[in-house]
Amino acid sequence: MRAMKQKKQENPPLYVSGGAFIGRVNRRDPRPFLALAPHLSCDGFEFMFYEAWYEHIDAILDLFLESGLRFPTLHVEKSIGEIVGAGEKGYEGLALERFEKNCLAAKTLGAEKLIFHLWNGVPSDHHIERNIDFCAEFLAIAKAHGLILTVENVVCACGSPLDHCMRLHEKYPDLFFTFDTKMASFHRELDAVFSEKYAHLWKAIAHLHVNDHSGAYLDFSSLRTLHIGEGVLDFHRFFEGLSKVGYRGSMTLECTSMLPDGTLTPEKMQESLLRVRALSSQYFT
Fold this sequence. Notes:
Blueprint: E1 14-17, H1 31-36, E2 44-48, H2 57-67, E3 73-75, H3 79-86, H4 91-109, E4 113-116, H5 128-144, E5 148-152, H6 161-171, E6 176-180, H7 181-186, E7 205-210, H8 235-245, E8 250-253, H9 266-283
Helix pairs in contact: 3-4, 4-5
């Protein structure tokens, strides 16, 4: 009897991060990105919430809404996890206030998933117990807004991002995760995530950040988000792994598409999108 051919999964939805085009070099001005975004071959975009935007977030959201673009995911502003890790006086109120504003922005844009740095910056995971315990507050707020909270495998100063995610998964079975290829490579965990040790974590990985990396181990100067093919990551092996674990979530390209003078390079993003599309077609439907 002829063996049945294994059915491939559907292609994961592919998004582009606004953060790839909005940064300090262009004074966080979203308008140039919003003008070029419709020409990118993606299924939607990831809204990157910046700390500088809190004071005028309503005006920023109006610009994004007027664009008519889809924003299925929102990257939560990064200082929140850093505030919790630092644990300075009054941190609880400030962290929760900012997280609430991010949730309201996600609802306004029609986003479904939150991408969250539970630990971040200089405090990193030095006080990981505090961050893990405080995650209960963030999860409750996200649920109240009908949003899916995903904690990212952010690089660590002390421990292992995947081990922290495993602890969170055990403590909060209804919490989800975002897996970032660059950050995993930084800790030599890109292959490890497909090992038996982390097998059941894939049930909770709902989103991916796909970007290349120079391969430098624990070198913080190497964390620039490179375009696909500019680093050393074996994406064929990674996508084959995704297919084997039956990945069903979405993915975002974060590859930096700005020159030092602020010039945007959408053609580079388009090339990365086409490369990921080709990989998805090969290993998925």
